[in-house]
Specification:
14 helices, single chain, globular, alpha/beta
Length: about 350
C-alpha cells in the first residue's frame, strides 16, 4: 500500500493491520509519521497535555527473580537490601500528600516476607489515613507471585487487594509481550499470556490499568507490533486500559547490558502506537527514560500526557540515570514551551487544575 493510501485509511478512522503498522514504522518519513499521530491526538484532546503528581514507593528491593535488565533488585543477604516498615511507607505517603500528590505507586521485588498480607495491611493503613489518595500499585508479576505463595486464585488476590484500597494497576512487568524475548531478558517472570490474563481479570473486577512496553533491549520491530496487537485485542474485549506508556531500556549496571536506543526510534514507536492502538485513550511520553527534551518532542508525535513529576523514583535511578525528578513549575513550563496547554490530572485522567 502506498503512503497516500495508508494515510487516507488512517484519516478516515479505519483500523490498520499489524503489517501496515510495520510498514509505517519501517518506511514512512518521520515527519509524516509525526503529522498523522499528532492529528489523531489533536482531534481527541486539542492542545491539552496532562501530568500527575505522585510518588513511587518501592517497599523492598529484595527479589527472587533478578531480571537481567534490572539494576535495582538485590538478594536478601546483600548489605543494601531493605524492606520498608509501615511507618516508613506512611511517612512517604504523607510527604507526597503534603506536596500535592493524588496518587501513590507501590511496587517491589518478589520476596516472601512482603507477601499479600503485608501489602493489604499497608494499603488499608494508607486509605485509613489518606482516603483521598489513589493507590495505583503492583505489577501483574507481583499479583501472580501472591497467588502462588498463598495458593489463591488471581481473582481472590485481586479482590483482597481491591477491598484493602487498590484503585488500579500499573503496566509494569509487560516489557515485551513476546515470550521468546522474555526468555532472554526476564526468564523467571510470568509469560505474556499470564500478564494479559491478570490485567483482563483486573478489568473484569472493575480495576482499570495502564499498559507499558520497554524497547531497545533484544526485541525486533515485529515484536513491538505484536506487543501492541495483544494490548489492542485485550482492550477491545475489556476497555480497561487507561493509557499506553512506552519506555526506553537503560542498560547501565544491568546484567543484560547493551546500548540505549535513539530518540528517533522512541518517537517512531510512540507515533505508531498512537496510530495503531486506536482504542487506548491516552498515550504517555516517558520523560524519565528519554529525557525532558525528547519527551517534549513526543508531544508532536501523538503523546497527550507526560506522566508524573516523580516525587520519588528508584528503579531507573539504579542504572546510574539520575534525572528522575521534576518540579511542577518545570513540568508546566515544559508543556507550555511546546505550545501545549498543561493540566494536572488524577489517575483516571480527571482534571485537577489547568494552567494558563
Amino acid at each position: 500500500m502506498k503512503f497516500d493510501d495508508l494515510a487516507r485509511k488512517i484519516e478516515k478512522g479505519k483500523r490498520i493491520t499489524s503489517e501496515e503498522a510495520i510498514s509505517l514504522f519501517r518506511e514512512y518519513p518521520l515527519s509524516l509519521l509525526a503529522k498523522i499521530a499528532n492529528d489523531i491526538k489533536e482531534e481527541k484532546y486539542g492542545n491539552k497535555v496532562t501530568f500527575i503528581v505522585d510518588r513511587n514507593i518501592n517497599y523492598t528491593n529484595i527479589c527472587e527473580v533478578r531480571c537481567k535488565f534490572c539494576a535495582f533488585s538485590r538478594d536478601e543477604e546483600d548489605s543494601d537490601a531493605y524492606v520498608l516498615s509501615e511507618e516508613e511507607i506512611l511517612n512517604k505517603v504523607e510527604e507526597a500528600v503534603n506536596m500535592g500528590a493524588t496518587q501513590v505507586m507501590l511496587q517491589g521485588g518478589l520476596y516472601r516476607k512482603t507477601d499479600l498480607y503485608y501489602i493489604t495491611n499497608i494499603f488499608s493503613l494508607i486509605k485509613k489515613r489518606f482516603p483521598q489518595i489513589s493507590i495505583h500499585s503492583l505489577t501483574a508479576t507481583e499479583i501472580d507471585y501472591f497467588s502462588k505463595i498463598h495458593n489463591l486464585s488471581i481473582e481472590e488476590v485481586l479482590t483482597k487487594l481491591k477491598e484493602s484500597g487498590l484503585s488500579s494497576l500499573p503496566g509494569g512487568g509487560a516489557e515485551i509481550l513476546v515470550d521468546k524475548v522474555r526468555k532472554i531478558i526476564s526468564p523467571k517472570k510470568i509469560s505474556s499470556s499470564k500478564w494479559l490474563q491478570i490485567h483482563e481479570k483486573a478489568h473484569l473486577l472493575g480495576l482499570k490499568s495502564t499498559a507499558t512496553m520497554v524497547i531497545g533491549h533484544r526485541e525486533t520491530i515485529e515484536d513491538r507490533i505484536l506487543h501492541l496487537e495483544r494490548i489492542r485485542k485485550l482492550q477491545d474485549k475489556t476497555g480497561g486500559f487507561l493509557s499506553f506508556i512506552p519506555w526506553i531500556y537503560y542498560p547501565g549496571k544491568t546484567e543484560l547490558g547493551g546500548t540505549k536506543t535513539t530518540s528517533v526510534d522512541y518517537l517512531r514507536t510512540l507515533a505508531v502506537a498512537r496510530i495503531f492502538m486506536d482504542n487506548i485513550p491516552h498515550v504517555q511520553a516517558s520523560w524519565l527514560t528519554v529525557g525532558k527534551k525528547t519527551a517534549q518532542m513526543a508531544l508532536y508525535f501523538g503523546a497527550d500526557d507526560l506522566g508524573s513529576i516523580m516525587l520519588e523514583e528508584n528503579v531507573v535511578r539504579a542504572t546510574g540515570h539520575n534525572a528522575v525528578r521534576m518540579a511542577i513549575d518545570e513540568m508546566v513550563n515544559l508543556i507550555k514551551s511546546a505550545d501545549r496547554k498543561p493540566a494536572q490530572r488524577k489517575t483516571d485522567f480527571t482534571i485537577v487544575r489547568e494552567f494558563n
